[in-house]
Amino acid sequence: MGHARKVTANIPEDVLENAQRLTGKGITLTLVEGLKALDRNARLSALRRLRGKVEFDLDLDRTRR
Q1: How many CB atoms lie within 10 A of CB 36?
Q2: Each residue of 31-43: pLDDT tens digit?
Q3: pTM check: above 0.85
Q4: pLDDT bucket at 1, cuts 50 / 70 / 90
Q5: Domain of 46, in residue numbers
């Protein structure tokens, strides 16, 4: 996991229990997975905003050689 930071958070019990049930993991790993999912979703949204705005010239035949 790399460097870790200990935090205290008040999380609604039902939300945490549901998240743990979905992940099948303990509290820490469930929270890490959730935070990673938020990051992944933000990155995908940024990529979606670029759709149709990025132009590039690619010769598929040439790249396959």
Answers
A1: 10
A2: 999 999 999 999 9
A3: no
A4: low
A5: 13-51
CB–CB of 30/20 below 8 Å? yes
Instruction: Report how many domains make up the chain.
Output: 1
In sequence order, the 6+-apart residues with CB closer than 8 A to the CB of 26 are 20
Q: Give a yes or no: residue 3 inside a domain.
A: no
Helix (H, G, I), strand (E, B) or coil at 59: coil
Q: pLDDT tens, 4-34?
A: 999 999 999 999 999 999 999 999 999 999 9
The reply to whether 19 falls in a domain is yes
Distance CA 34, CA 27 (A): 11
Classify burial at 30, counting beta carbons within 10 Å of its beta carbon; exposed 0-12, middle 13-18, buried 19 or more.
Answer: buried
